[in-house]
Amino acid sequence: MPKNTAEIGQGTLGKEQEVRAASPSEECAAQDPLPQPSPGDVPFGGAPLEFELKRKAAESSVPLPETGWTQAEIRDAASSEIELERKEIWKRTLEQYADRLDGDPDAPPRAQELFSTVPETGHTVDAPYSRIMANLASLGDLGDAQMLQEQSGHEFCYDNTAQRWFRFNGVIWKRDGNRQVRREVSRLAEFYDKAAFQQKRKIREAGRGEVTEAKGVLRSIRSRSKALRGYSIDRVLDEAASGDNSMGIAGNEWDQHPELLACANGVIDLESGKLHRGDPKLYLRMASPYEYHGLHAEAEPFDEMLDMVFCGNAELRDYFERVVGCAATGLREKKIWCAYGPKGDNGKSILFETLAGVLGDFAGNLKVDLLLDQRKQQNEEPYLIALKGRRMAVASEPPKNSYFSLERVKMLTGSDTVTARGLYMPDPLEFKPVCKIFVHTNFVPRLKNADQAFLKRLVIVPFHASFVAPEAADPSRHMYPRKPEDKIKELFRQHGPGILSWVVRCARRYLRNRDLSEPECVRKAGSSYEQEYDTLGDFIRSCCELADSGIKTRAKVLYDVFALWLELEKGVPPERIIKSRSFNADMRQRFDDHDSNVLYFKGICLKPEYKGSAAELRAQWEKKADA
């Protein structure tokens, strides 16, 4: 077998030879090609180590068709030639510069010694030479920042708003909790070490007039190396994160791709259901903890649970799947969904816990107090900050007899910008919520007044199934045997990839036509709720008459009677009665108004028995109550 590079050329065939017999090694290569990764083998950000080792081993043993040699044989031959050339160069050096050489001149230094200080970081950029490093050293911290960006700009970035460094893990950006970026700055000193070694050699080779300048360059290089191992690390990081086209970002670049969903092994395009490699330029920070095994992966236990939870109602399950698909995207939807089951143990809690677990970072718990009207206001801004970027927010079990805060629900489900300041944040943060809000409860919070805009946002999804003791189970009445909760959770965790595929199918379907039309059972539940809590509508039916537009009634008269009716007829405490401004706003949604100096509503008047002064009406109701 040939052992030098000259024989490599002798082994290749001339152009005039059109046909030759395949060598045994080539036949082996044709029968046993290089291993190819299966879809599950290659995570985003690169192939796994085990696969790379297999490929390199195969490449070393497969001959190249042009030469008939394997890569390992070519490397051995090239190394032999390099070693001979190195010794020849050293021999000539001894003849010309023997008086300037330090140490033992009998043998040249090994190649490993020349590069022993160069870090093996896996970067694709080669270490700069001494001349380039000298130029960078002359720039001080700015030069080091440029080198850091060249070496690590694809792996680290700094959020100037959050004032934190982040590191790309191959799929998403994660907080650099152990401050690895500081180690990356220190490693830059090793490039200066290599440049210093090369500069020392230049000094030995330099003429008398060049030595002084060369030694000055060496001092500059050594100074930067020392600084990078100590006091200048913070200054270099600050310089690297400042300005346009630097390693710093403003903070509003995060998670700006509503139709992408990152997962453990890549980034899913929710429109097509295809998996793609992670890309640091997408600036994604959230991901599902599960791997994506393709659009058609199944989770049979979860599928069976959905059938039981929705009592075999295909329309209701179909609607819920479209809602989940909407929640998996980052698109805004002005809705709040209440998963309402008047009885406990109906499966809604474990269903939403499973969905939140599959969505991972995209889902979060929502403090239910943010949705309720409360007398004592707390500092809620840290809880609002936690919703930034979330696609699904789940609140559970509001207290009985609680009331929705219409203003807060509209704020969280609307398209307006929310401003909040987190703990230890120097400046307030502005963002537009994209989370879809889900409340699973046995008691739907009440309304002070049936605001029509709010009622359009509220969707009540009925949960009528029951999970009971095995001996009490009766599937015909939608009473199913209850299983240990911890076992169900573990089973669903094992089927996490299949549930993730189901979520992707739901999102793909939603994105196709954006259809969230409600089935009859959902519309019926919403209508019942509206009738129960539409106190203004009840007041109009009980105390007023509808008339033509020529008849009008003063707004203040209507409100005074409304407030008395709530207090004396419905037993509402005076402090919980809505103010006249809210009353007028709700009336404007139902009737035309006439406003000169005094506000009137057209087409409505009080029934005769409710006309009179407040004292007369109070006496009338008290007499009615005594009777």
UniProtKB/TrEMBL annotation:
For the region Disordered, what residue ranges are annotated? 1-47
Annotated SF3 helicase domain ranges read 315-476
InterPro entries per the UniProt record, alphabetical: Helicase_put_C_phage/plasmid (IPR006500), Helicase_SF3_DNA-vir (IPR014015), ORF904-like_C (IPR051620), P-loop_NTPase (IPR027417), Phage/plasmid_primase_P4_C (IPR014818)
Q: Which residues form the signal peptide?
A: none
Query: Entry's Pfam families?
Result: D5_N (PF08706)
| UniProt keyword terms in alphabetical order | ATP-binding, Helicase, Hydrolase, Nucleotide-binding
Q: Name one GO molecular function term.
A: hydrolase activity
Coiled-coil ranges (or none) = none
Is ATP-binding tagged as a keyword? yes
Q: Which NCBIfam families match?
A: primase_Cterm
Q: What is this protein called?
A: Putative DNA primase/helicase
